[in-house]
Each structure stands twice: as structure tokens, then as C-alpha cells.
Amino acid sequence: MAEFTIHSIESAPEAGKPLLEASFKANGRVPGLHGTMAAAPPLMAAYSFAHQQFLATSMTDEEKTVVWQTINVEQNCHYCVPAHTGIAKMMKVDDAITEALRNETPLPTAKLEALRSFTLAMVRDRGFVSDAETQAFLDAGFSEVNILEIILGAAQKLMSNYTNHFAKTPIDEVFQKFAWEKKSAE
Questions:
Q1: Are 83 and 54 in contact (CB under 8 A)?
Q2: Are 51 and 156 a contacting pair, CB within 8 Å?
Q3: pLDDT tens figures, 66-82
Q4: Taking every pair of C-alpha atoms in the chain, what is the biggest distance, in angstroms?
Q5: Residue 77 region, left (φ>0) first, then alpha (ψ -120 to 50), else beta?
Q6: How far apart are CA 55 and CA 154, in angstroms?
Q7: Is 128 exposed, middle or buried (0-12, 13-18, 19+ CB in 10 A)?
Q8: What sign does the dihedral 73-75-78-83 (CA atoms) show?
Q9: Rg, C-alpha atoms of the chain
Q10: Domain boundaries, given as residue ranges, for the chain
Q11: What is the pLDDT of residues 139-173, one digit of tens each?
């Protein structure tokens, strides 16, 4: 089994140090995911850039949370679900949305449910979403631009979810109260 190091600013490779310094400045700490990614500075840089770009999309904070958490839950990311629960709270996203995403129960609006359904189809079908599913997404009030934005969010989540799967990144103390386990299929 591989054992991954969670780097501090001091222990990171030279190219990773400025990335962790920026992370510390933005978060007041170095999140475990960032410390792990810092071992491969190009991954950390790509992830950070993708994150900033996804934040700059036309989606609302609620919609961004739906994309992130839908993917986190689908990919069973023990680290990202709690982290994005805390991030959603910071973004002032309604707890009902967060809980529905975490528990895979219906979302409070048809539009958000359409976003979750489309995001799931995109992830499960690796981008080969049917015309009918795409049309249902568009009919719910979304656009072709939103499809491209979801692709960006999925790319970001692939980097973080897969890193956490391999590294078994411990949940940051600040997010431990939001610990999560995927419900088993019944």
C-alpha cells in the first residue's frame, strides 16, 4: 500500500511551497488535501486553478454546491463530503440542500434536482449523456454553458476525490463534525 505524505509548507517540494503558502493565506491553515497534493506541484496548481475557475462560473453558490457534492457523494469521497459541507455553510447555502445531497434524498427545488440528475448522468456515463437527459436539463432552465461548467467542476472533483481515495486523507479538524459515510444500497 502506498503511503502519502501530507506536507507542510516547510516539508513540501520547492515548487509546492508557494502553493501551500497561498493555501495557508486563503484558509488560515493548510488543508490536508492541499498538503497531500503538494507532493506533485503540477497537480496542486491545476487543482487550485480549476477550483478558482469553477468559483467564477455563472452558477449560484447553491448550484456549485450541488455539482460538487453530487460528485463527492457519487464517488464516495470521505474527505470532500465533510469539507464541502463546511464550505456550503461558509457560502450560506441552505442546510436542507446540503443534507439532501449528503443523504441522497430529494432536493428542495425541481431545478436543483435537475442539476443533480444531469451531473450524475455526466459522471456515471463519462460524458455520454443522452439527448433526453440533456434536454431535460436545458428545459429546467440551464444552458449549454452550464454543461461546460459542470465539466469543469467534474474535472476539479476528479483530482480531489481520487487523491483522497489513494491517500486516505484524514478529515481536517475543522470539518470533522461533518464526517460522512455513504449509505449502503438497500
A1: no
A2: yes
A3: 999 999 999 999 999 99
A4: 52
A5: beta
A6: 13
A7: exposed
A8: negative
A9: 17
A10: 14-53, 59-178
A11: 999 999 999 999 999 999 999 999 999 999 999 99
Give this prediction's pTM.
0.95
* Rounded distance between C-alpha atoms, residue 82 and residue 171, angstroms: 8
Q: Nearest-CA neighbor of 72 among 10, 119, 16?
A: 119
Written as one letter, the residue type at 61 is D
H helices of the chain, where? Answer: 17-27, 32-37, 41-55, 61-74, 80-90, 95-103, 110-124, 131-139, 144-167
Residue with cell 464526517: 179
| CATH superfamily of the domain spanning 59-178 | AhpD-like (1.20.1290.10)
DSSP state of 92: T
Query: Is the pLDDT score of 106 beyond 60?
Result: yes
pLDDT (mean) for 174-184: 93
